[in-house]
Design a protein that fits this description.
Blueprint lengths: L12 E7 L11 E12 L10 E2 L2 H8 L6 E13 L4 E4 L4 E9 L2 E8 L2 E9 H5 L3 E7 L7 E7 L4
Antiparallel strand pairs: 1-9, 2-4, 2-10, 3-4, 5-6, 6-7, 7-8, 9-10
């Protein structure tokens, strides 16, 4: 990673943001398939030794409408099937994990853990995700305030 930048951004989370699209019917689900992505936002280039992927253009456009960075790189991606029976825990990096669960049929709760400690709990209407929206938990990079980290949730389009 660039300049020893660590994935411990979870400790410095600043905002939760939902980008939603319009239309669709009411959502009632006991199960939802999600994609969780750990993303790095920067004005710099991808480090030559990094195994980062270029971010999907659709997700990048949604982030660029709100955030200032020129480049977004996917650090990791985790698929998850969340059911009403039990929370789903995802390891996004060695220092960042998320736990997703249903609060009710229409709302998901995301708990963010940084270095093993709960750092943030947010709720997200399921309807916005199933209509092509994304949910974003974001924060400044610990070692470089000019960069940022994001955990982005979406429903994979089939």
């Amino acid at each position: 990673m660039k300049g020893g930048l660590r994935l411990s951004f979870c400790m410095l989370l600043g905002s939760f943001l939902s980008l939603i699209s319009l239309g669709g019917a009411a959502v009632h689900a006991a199960e939802v398939k999600l994609k969780a992505q750990l993303i790095w936002g920067t004005d710099g280039n991808k480090p030559p030794d990094a195994n980062y992927k270029e971010l999907d253009e659709a997700i990048k456009k949604k982030l660029c409408r709100v955030f200032k960075w020129k480049n977004y790189f996917e650090i990791s991606q985790q698929p998850a099937t969340v059911t009403s029976a039990a929370p789903k825990r995802l390891k996004m990096s060695s220092k960042c994990e998320v736990e997703v669960r249903f609060v009710d049929d229409a709302t998901l709760e995301v708990k963010l853990f940084g270095e093993g400690k709960l750092t943030k709990t947010v709720r997200q209407p399921l309807k916005s995700l199933t209509q092509g929206g994304i949910a974003v938990i974001a924060g400044d990079a610990k070692d470089n305030v000019d960069d940022a980290w994001f955990v982005v949730f979406s429903v994979p389009q089939t």
